[in-house]
Amino acid sequence: MAASSDRNPPPFPATEEPGAGPSDMADGDSDEGEDIFSNPVAVSRGVSQPDRVNEEPPDLFSEEEEASSTPAKSNGVHSDEDNDLFAEAHVELSTDKPGSSDRKELSSSSGLRPASSFTQSPAAMQPTSLEQLEEDEAKDSFDVDVAVTNPEKVGDGMNAYVAYKVSTRTSLPMFRSKAFTVRRRYSDFLGLYEKLSVKQSLLGCIIPPPPEKSVVGMTKVKVGMDDPSSVEFVERRRAALERYLQRVVSHPSLLQDPDVREFLEREELPRAVSTQALSGAGFLKMINKASDAVNKMTIKMNESDTWFEDKFQEVENEEQQLRKLHALVDSLVNHRKELCGNTAVFAKSMAMLGNSEDNTALSRALSQLAEVEDKMEQLHQEQAASDFFIFEELLADYIRLLGAMRGCFDQRMRAWQRWQEAQSTLQKKREAEAKLLWANKPDKLQQAKDEITEWEARVTQYERDFDRVGMTVRKEVLRFEKEKAKDFKSQIIKYLEAMLQSQQRLIKFWEAFLPEAKAIA
Amino acid sequence: MFHEVGGGGGGGGGGGGGGGVTDLTVRQGANQSAEEGASWLYTFIIGVVGLFVDLPPTMTSSIDESSKEKMRSVSVDLNHDASLLIDIPDALCERDKVKFTVHTKTTLSSFQKPEFSVPRQHEDFIWLHDTLVETEDYAGLIIPPAPPKPDFESPREKMHKLGEGEATMTKDEYTKMKQELEAEYLAVFKKTVQVHEVFLQRLSSHPTLSKDRNFQIFLEYDQDLSVRRKNAKEMFGGFFKNMVKSADEVLISGIKEVDDFFEQEKTFLLDYYSKIKDSTAKAEKMTRAHKNIADDYIHVSATLNSLSADDSTANKKHLEKLADLFEKLRKVEGRVASDQELKLTELLRYYMRDIQAAKDLLYRRARALADYENSNKALDKARLKSKDIPQAEEHQQHCLQKFDKLSESGKKELTSFKGRRVVAFRKNLIEMAELEIKHAKNNVTLLQGCIDQLKNN
């Protein structure tokens, strides 16, 4: 729906952007306080906002808008929106969810609101409405809940593998039932990723990557699952797979994908065989190949893409910093494990000293001290696990995700490349036609004309594709950023709460020891 | 009589800094509050910075700069007797050498002046210790262990590494690491002053040792002692070492012990010594691991800050808060490490040395016993040969007297040593537990604050 053509939001190539995020603002808003929403804006919530589409195009890209709408921020009193704008929003949302909420189809249901109700460019956006939409989105994403549990070793020797229980609970009608469980192995997860990558990344989606393959880790497990490092490895993988699935199902487009449904529901999955390419190294290679292709491009993209350039740079920097942080946290984990070991050793030594001590009260106190130190060792152990499983893994996840995001950007570049190449081919065809005209060869002329028509169509198609990918990428990035902020916040809180509890227990231990020390005489 | 303050009564890690993390630093007069002490010391850190040793050229303070650091006495307990009060109020550090200012206040007429100060080096203390050990008359006493040599090796090395790695970290990170190192230098410095001071104070509180002539010279003589030191070395040079070696053999070769008390003590001390030595080493490792974690926190905080600075999303504030928290946590962690060092590790270390001194007493007594037994044999031989009997008898009497004297004073010394040890352990264990609780409560407050901030955002 090209209704937006008369409204050209400043930074975007003014192509027919399918009316994306219906602006809830749009709804009640246009009449509502001009004072509040000086620039009525369509909220781009790539979420399943869908049919409330308004021909407000590009507010998909709330980023732009946020920047420009800071003055409006002060107006954005949450409560206003609550009452008026979003009353309807909820209704629409719930009916929307199943099925058609695919972003790409937004255009179809637009036209609900006459474009005329908006007199201004949708460029500016109301940040507060975003928050409201975030809440709505949050509601949506909990319609599907997945868990990965019960790792079990199946088989023996080098052919053994670990099977995980994948449980889903959902209220969505698209699934066969409300709760179901299947058993999956690691290669199944990889297989899912591959299928999704092939399909979705072409469109510019950020596909969450699963945890990397690890030959060393798995071999140890195959040999025997008992030692602490194997146990840790399996637990680490289980948690990572769970997070991977959770990210997949909370992504509205991916959730619609039949492969995802199949993965969650189907009893027996055909064995995924071509997962070689998706080992950690293979994955990286894929990304790097794309980057290389991009680097080899000689034609520079035009400047209307500063958003993309800037974002890409940001992403690269962030990835670098995250890697650095990851290494530091790893060092922290190791030092804590060291402390753990040293404390245990010290505790034993202290116990021996207590035994040697001939003053009874002091002897008892020293033994108590040894016990306290033993408990401290336990605390340090738990803290190290927390450091690792919560903090370090969070960073690892996002390093992978940022890599996926980079892949996304590269997809867009490829799309651009394709378009450019088509354009140059078209040019050549036209030149060929001209030559033919001049050389007066009417028979070949028709063919040339046909080819030109064909290529013209292609050019148009590729251009459309490019724009669409661009839009999707933008949406994805924004969604990703929000998810990331939420994710970090909740994980950090979890990490700190664990640390807090640990310190509280520490206090108890020492408080229990104090009277013993005072009793020395 | 002896109120030993184990590893030093105060001096919780240097670099006090930030919010409310004050602790038992130094206390002298009643008016000296811990806070004052901490902040006062802190202002000297700046001056003290360059003075310790090689700083990378990029640091502003020159290597030759030396500044005085005023220190107050940390072991009040020992300095009871107004007739002879000793403390080390000042110490100066140049490169490797530490110059202590030994300050004496006395009412005793044996001294020339009622109050005076002299500069002394570590080697002077060692000289004093060795001469005391060599003095026959003191064979029945536990000679307070010599203070260990000031050792700035560890922080110096770290400072070097820091200088080399400067380019890889942010300015902020570098500054913080430097601060930590400065605090470490300061802690080492404080410890060494403390341990030298305690040595002197133990001497001054001992009824016999305080009257020692060499001790007096040490306190009073306003010239350089290095001449005397050289003479002493020539005389006693290898003797001490030999004594230690043979002493072990004597004890271990199982001289038949006549007294149950000493038999028990021997067993106890030998066993305890090896255990406490082990514990000391393990405690040191524990402390080091704590310090590593505190350092890690610095780096984590700095990187989080970088991430946050470049972040333009809602995540920015989360990262900022976390960075801030880690910075605060690392200060607490640093204090935990240094308090543990002082209260636990130093305690163990000091008593390890003290037990060695007690063992030395046992060795001497064992040697005296061996001498006595030999003299008996010699007397028997003389009686057999009817030759030189009176000398042999005299010699035997002499040995017996010596042995009895040693045994008597030894018993007293060892008994009071026990009491001293128990008191010191009690004090330090209580203080350590209290500090651990305090720091953990601090952590809890910090963590809760950050969690609340994040949740309310």
Automatic annotation (TrEMBL), chain B:
Keyword terms, alphabetized: Protein transport, Transport
SUPFAM superfamilies membership: BAR/IMD domain-like, PX domain
GO cellular component, one term: cytosol
Region (Disordered): 1-20
Pfam families, alphabetized: PX (PF00787), Vps5 (PF09325)
Positions in coiled-coil regions: none
Residue ranges occupied by any PX domain in the UniProt entry: 78-225
Family membership: Belongs to the sorting nexin family.
Protein name: Sorting nexin 5
Species this protein is from: Dicentrarchus labrax (European seabass)
